[in-house]
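Comment thread on ticket #2218

A.B. wrote:
> Attaching the input chain for the structure job we discussed in standup.
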Amino acid sequence: MSARKFRFVSPGIFINEIDQSQIPADSELVGPVIIGRTEKGPGMIPVRVSSFSDFVETFGNPIDGTGGEQDTWRGGNRNSPTYGAYAAQAYLKAGVGPVNFVRLMGVQHDEADSDGQAGWKTAAQHNVAIGETGGSYGLFIFSSGSLNGAAVNGVANTGDNIVNHSGTLAATFYMDSGIPVLSGNVPSSSANPFSPHEGTCTVVASDSNGNFKLRVLSSAGAEVKSATCNMAESSANWIRNQFNTNPQLLNSTIESSNNATSYFLGETYERAIDDLGLTAPYHGIILGIGSGTSGVGPWDREQPYRDSHSGWFFAQSFLASPTTSSYRYDDMQKLFKFVGINGHGEWLQDNIKISIDNIKAAENDNYQYGTFDVVLRKASDSDAQPSIIERYSACSLDPTSPDYVAIKIGDTYQNWDSTENRYREYGDYPNRSRYIRVVLNDSVKNGATPSACLPFGVYGPPRFRHFEFHSGSSKANVEDNAGLGGVFAKGSGSNMSRNAAGSTDDAGKLDNATIGWVYSGQNPIPASVYADQSTFGTASIVFPACGIRSTATQDGATLNSAYFGLHTGKTSTSTTHDTGYPDYLRSHGSDVVSSDVWGDTFGEAGYPAPNFTEQWVFSLDEMVLGTGSNFDGSKPTTGLTEATWTSGSLATGDSWTGSGSTDGNLGECRYQNILDSKINRFTSPMFGAYDGLDITERDPFRNTVIGSSETGDYVYHTIRRAINTVADPEMLSCNLITIPGLTNEALTKYLIDVCDSRADALAVIDVKGGFQPRHESNSAITSRRGNLDSVLSNIKARNLNSSYGCAYYPWVTIRDDIAGTYVKVPPSVVAMGVMANTEKKADVWFAPAGFNRGGLSQGASGLTVTGVETKLTSRNRDDLYDVNINPIASFPAEGIVVFGQKTLQATRSALDRINVRRLLIYMKKGVSQIAATTLFQPNVRDTWNGFKSRAENFLSDVKVRFGIDDFKIILDESTTTPDLVDRNIMYAKIFIKPTRAIEFIAIDFVITRSGASFED
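C.D. wrote:
> Ran it. Output below, let me know if you need it in another format.
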């Protein structure tokens, strides 16, 4: 401390304490970047995890690729290993450092052509004009006892909701070619009330147990599959047990001819059937799902990944009793909605639901804003036993309050800038939630909504609009249409343009917003069979809706525990989670819900769009009190144990708020009464997300499907973009980057180039010509084994010469200790573990090889390694080392070991060894951190000496720890010349002698005569 900083006034002794004993803080650990697929988690952004338990919580366990779920459509793709997840496990188990993980999702270039679109679609789509088969087909069922069923879940019979719901879509088939057909008895006006028939577009009766005979036919009419099926999950004939539910079987490139097929069963809607009260026997019909004119439908899911949305949450009604009859959901003030963040995709909507809880009106007349909690819950929980993931308490809609909902949850999102290859961030408040952000209505953000507004209701997910069946007209009309269906569809929408019978009246038209006519001209389906069905009558069909709670006690909950709105049980009375719940939430297709409609305005402008209506809309304003309640005016006093939600009950005056006080003063509105009675919570789903992946692939990023153009191949673009997210060293610090399993030469070269450009990371790549896993082709295992000659010739042809890359061979077998299975993994997986083990046991500049630090059988990789795909001879190891590939050797006594540490630098220098390259990366990072504190200091000798002193201390520490043999720093007028000083430059030179690793040991055994003296 300078004496000038003392205050001297009168004589005395002045003492100050200066502590120079502080221990410098340890520099933050720098870990690798690993890019790959995972079970769940944020997508296309690097996420830092510090332990394997943290990784599992964020991204899920590694997947061994053995299947695990026979129902791939519902259970997810578990049919190929997630090598990136195993690499993360290896590094985190073997070392102490963090991992930055980038989960791959399907993205596409801004200028992608038709071949470069992400996602999937069926190989062909039904087209009435040309008679093409393929696409999406629905099995629709409806009551055979009465065609005038009751309303569903209390949904009002107004607007787009048809008065009598007698049936619904039960199941969807996706066809690369061909069609599904129903067999059975057809209603007829002839003397015989039923006649046998098989086909599409024709009503068929089930048996008394609800069984239909359903066949899948090829485009030539040959039988692909035939089964007796029903919609009862408890039955052996359950449709999901009888038909293929694995989309990957459509892919003949990866499936053998014995397994490959032309169709798969997608969504089935058991809960919706139960909610409708449909009971066997049924009527059934097969129809195509989609637009009848524009040729779009659910069969086309070619679109990039996108996050899920909730519907808009809206406010309570302030209408007085005389005007409640005019109540409309769309007239209520929209407040906010929630959107997934960070690319969680479909997992978020499948596994998380959002509850608004503890809604409270303002308690002070001078401050009108009330509060509410936002609760993220597991979708599989029950209201009686909620499983809470996140809770944000006492949120407010007051933009000036620290409790403002946007402040508590966050509203930040990122968009990829393809020009600058980086993310741009938007929003006013940082995200505190790991899963969602809030989107505020502009009037809320501007403080223009009534301050008494509270979230009171929510729009449910979208679904296709309803339609109606009508009896056929005549045999002649049917035949004139070359095999088009003889059951007419009359839609309620405005886009009815296709006339199945050649007439112009509405009775023969198709609602092309909801259902497409199926061309059924195959030989087994003669058009003449559709004649005369005049006794059939009319059926009203609604598309399925996810469950919604009707009463507080329907599943054993109580009035104080029940959350109205979304209900995710198997049935309305069950707390067991409905495994089919995600089927109600899926994206409807790229053309059906366009990207411009799907933005933050989805649910407002353009919603529900011409093709859609809401599955349901919930509001606490439509709660009806149970019988036996006692009232004091409009407030219950005793006996309130039940309440029912009935859509439309406010408009009819039957709901609590519709029949209570007429006081229109916002401070004393009727909505407060229901909140005071603790009916103050409800739940919403999220919906519409998409992972952007080709679900017909075991591994959507397999090497044998990767193209060479960003605009022409979404896989190539996705991987390249993932690399670009970590290309800037100022945005992310790392020392290793790997994409385990990737052997595409253009992309691995790009990865090396990025590491070279960063100059602070080593790329660990896998090489072409090694073992081909099952997801790469349908070849027999014998033809998928690694070929050493191919590996050598491929690597020679690449002419790589970079110390910022390294490679290993061959693949190894590990034991997955979580799943208890054995998995073949690429060598980069265990290489990551060996790098971490070396850093943990010694330092980054020690060779990550040999029995001490590279012994895989001894656990050096953090995984249990049990074998190698190819046992290398001494000659094999020499050949690999000659082309700079590090062998993984198996020795009879010592076990499996990493037996090399070369980089891919062909030029002979110290940097052709991994330990030296990693030493330089470490030292450059350390010296850079020292230099950063020197910036903007005076460019004078004192500053130079300070930098030099700190750098010498750092390098001396590396020397003591055997990283370098010696060093020298020159920083004086000979390096920083007056000319450089004038240009504001300080220039230093650092000379180092890296410590070399012993890779060759030569020992002479000299045999002497008996009389020789060793001292000689």
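A.B. wrote:
> Thanks. Noting for the ticket: The longest helix spans residues 941-960.
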